[in-house]
Amino acid sequence: xxxxxxxxxxxxxxxxxxxxxxxxxxxxxxxxxxxxxxxxxxxxxxxxxxxxxxxxxxxxxxxxxxxxxx
Length: 70
Hints:
The protein is an all-beta fold and 70 residues long. The chain is 0% helix and 31% strand. Strands 1-2-3 form a three-stranded antiparallel beta sheet, with no helix packed on it. Strand 1 (15-22) and strand 2 form a beta hairpin. The chain is elongated, with a radius of gyration of 15 Å. The two termini are 25 Å apart.
């Protein structure tokens, strides 16, 4: 059976995804623009505040993987 995962990305401003991709492990990447001053992850990034207007973002979502056999 198929398993689907949902995740919310965005916050108080205009947030726009422009590209979505998957890597070889199945992790998802979302790239786009935001005018949010409270965009998720701002405390753990290179630029911790909005620089004014719109800023670019690249977010990675780790997909759940089964544990390796012992």
